[in-house]
Amino acid sequence: MMKMIIATMILSPTALTLKPKILYQVMTSYTFILATISLTFLKQNNFTKTLLNTHFNLDSISSPLLTLSYWLLPLTIIASQHSLSLEPTQRQRMFLATILLLQTFISMTFMTSNLTTMYIMFEATLIPTLIIITRWGHQSERLTAGTYFMLYTLATSMPLLIAILSLNNLSYSPSPFFITTKPLNQWTNLMLWMACLTAFMTKMPIYGLHLRLPKAHVEAPIAGSMILAAILLKLGGYGIIRMMQVLPTTKTDMFMPLLILSMWGAILANLTCLQQTDLKSLIAYSSVSHMSLVVAATLIQTQWSLSGAMTLMIAHGFTSSMLFCLANISYERTHTRIMILTRGLHNILPLTTMWWLMANLMNIAIPPSINFTGELLIMTSLFNWCPTTIILLGLSLLITTSYSLHMYLSTQTGKPSYNSTIQPTHTREHLLMTMHMLPIILMSFKPELIM
């Protein structure tokens, strides 16, 4: 574990010292090597167990998310290459160093076996993300988006810190996750649960605490959007699943208001998607609806629902990242994100239309994709818990299909409304799409790797 963390940390100063001519070649190659090594973590065997120590640990919950974060690291660099090439070399170096610093914090959050360290790293991810949004965002609203992002996260993470300090005092062992707490009364249990859930649900985010997310996505550069949607949202789900092992056991009925809010939130976020005109904003709201399903699944705390939540988080990581990349490809050519102004792209970029279709089908969760596996497990476990939920879940699924097809038809079909010359797509962009789609297809054949 330490080898991976040290290798990632060293890449940050490397980005600041490399010659400009070989900057992207070296950084992309090194990050691809790290991504390849991280694939070994998916198979928990004696070799991976020898890499563990008392401070860092990997299990079936953290290893798929860690692999996802390392896999998307080179892809963020490839996706940002065109927009960064127009900037001074020093800013390009700083951008790469910030991305790698963020990756270091993310990997330490997933690897650590200590509650306090997890909280510190969980909060530390805020700083590089804030720098990426405010420094490399494209519009003047980026400072407002950064402020929203910071205030939401900091305000809700204070109760989490108090809860963690309280758990450390109550536990019999100081550091590991698997601690046995002393018996507490019902209200203390509820307060501890609510303090932890509020922080992690804001990170996901649950509907009602989601306003920072579309703003941050719209203002962030492509690398920021990819990391936000694919990895940082998953910190919330990971945190909830992790804290279940630590917090005193509580009945699912206690979470009834949050379960109802998450399922209604999924429907409301989907309906919001239908009225969006901005492409990035639409994809951001679709993330809110998918994460609401993950919240509902984690709260009922059954084996199937947790497997479904983990599967959907990984599948959504690749799908949303791919959609943001496609939106960026369109934006770099038409210089607008308004969907009605980007229509008719299938006449000019037919191969990109194929990628759009595949990404939207994955977003709909068409069988036999890994997205379908995740949603099927979640829907089955929720239906088993309460049959009435099938109405809300069915409605949510129907609206998801509607806005995904609306997004595809609005951007690809029709008569083009622009006169400027459109550049053809580059091999770099097709490689980017392939590297997103390949894991989704391969995981469909062997989903137990990430369950």
From TrEMBL:
GO terms for biological process: ATP synthesis coupled electron transport; electron transport coupled proton transport. It is found in: Mitochondrion membrane. It catalyses: a ubiquinone + NADH + 5 H(+)(in) = a ubiquinol + NAD(+) + 4 H(+)(out). One of its GO terms (molecular function) is NADH dehydrogenase activity. GO terms for cellular component: mitochondrial membrane. The chain crosses the membrane at residues 21-41, 61-82, 94-112, 118-137, 149-170, 190-210, 222-242, 254-273, 282-300, 306-327, 348-370, 382-405. Residues 1-109 form the NADH:ubiquinone oxidoreductase chain 4 N-terminal domain. Coiled coil: none annotated. It is a multi-pass membrane protein. Keywords: Electron transport, Membrane, Mitochondrion, NAD, Respiratory chain, Translocase, Transmembrane, Transmembrane helix, Transport, Ubiquinone. Its main location: mitochondrion. Residues 113-396 form the NADH:quinone oxidoreductase/Mrp antiporter transmembrane domain. It comes from the Eukaryota. Its EC number is 7.1.1.2. It holds the Pfam family Oxidored_q5_N. NCBIfam families: NDH_I_M (TIGR01972). Core subunit of the mitochondrial membrane respiratory chain NADH dehydrogenase (Complex I) which catalyzes electron transfer from NADH through the respiratory chain, using ubiquinone as an electron acceptor. Essential for the catalytic activity and assembly of complex I. Core subunit of the mitochondrial membrane respiratory chain NADH dehydrogenase (Complex I) that is believed to belong to the minimal assembly required for catalysis. Complex I functions in the transfer of electrons from NADH to the respiratory chain. The immediate electron acceptor for the enzyme is believed to be ubiquinone. Belongs to the complex I subunit 4 family. This is NADH-ubiquinone oxidoreductase chain 4. It comes from Acrochordus granulatus (Rasp-skinned water snake).
